[in-house]
Amino acid sequence: MPEPGTRPTLGSVTAIFLRIANTTFGGGLPTIAALEREFVHRRHWLSEEDYGLAFAVARVTPGTNVIAFCAATGARMIGFLGAVSGAFSETLPSAVLAVLLTQGYESWRTNPTVMAAVAATVAAVVGMMWSSIYGMVQPHWGGIERTARALVIVGGSFLALWKFGVNPLTIIVAAALLGLVWKEPERA
Question: Domain limits at 73?
Fold first, then answer.
């Protein structure tokens, strides 16, 4: 999993959580995407499978998914202390910032210039979320059956939640059962 000669340490993992989790705006998905780039692609401290498992587990836990994700990835890289580091490094600084931004919003919410900036930020977050989604689905494209499987599961999940309001836990269980029955074909 790690590159030869490199191993994650508590200090290095904590520094990355503090830097990324507290400077990536727009919610959990952009943060999770940035952490994927750092832990999976740049440093090779997590495999794509470990990342995907941490993401899936985080989505089924109650509460804030990004905290669960940071705890899961931290635990996978360096154990219990990594989980504690991930949860606290992501939570404490951003909680202080959230309080400060909430207070500022009360003062600025009638200012059209500030509200235009907020609207543009929302649009940027949507783009970052789509980037994150593409990054997670892209490894499952390739060949007709692999692509069809990915489209059915991703598209079906989207429709089930968006159009029909199906409970997310029900969608995840249904997808897991479908995955057991319709296994992903090997890459050619």
Answer: 10-139
8 A C-beta contact, residue 69 and residue 28 = yes
Q: Indicate if the alpha-carbon torsion angle 58, 62, 68, 72 is positive or negative.
A: negative
Q: 108 in a domain, yes or no? A: yes
How many Å from the N-terminal Cα to the C-terminal Cα in the chain?
23
List own/partner pairs for 71-78 with CB under 8 A and 24 or more apart: 73/35, 73/39, 73/46, 74/13, 74/17, 76/46, 76/50, 77/8, 77/13, 77/39, 77/45, 77/46, 78/8, 78/9, 78/10, 78/13
pLDDT tens string 21-76:
777 766 688 888 889 999 999 999 999 999 999 998 888 888 788 899 999 999 99
Structure tokens at 14: 């904590």
Judge whether 2 lies within some domain: no
Q: How far is CA 51 from CA 26, 57, 76, 144, 161, in A?
A: 20, 10, 9, 25, 23
State if pTM tops 0.70. Answer: no
Q: What is the radius of gyration, based on Cα positions, of the chain? A: 18
Answer whether residue 4 is part of any domain: no
Q: Do 82 and 153 lie in a common domain?
A: no
Copy the structure tokens of residue 147. Answer: 């692509």
Length of the chain: 188
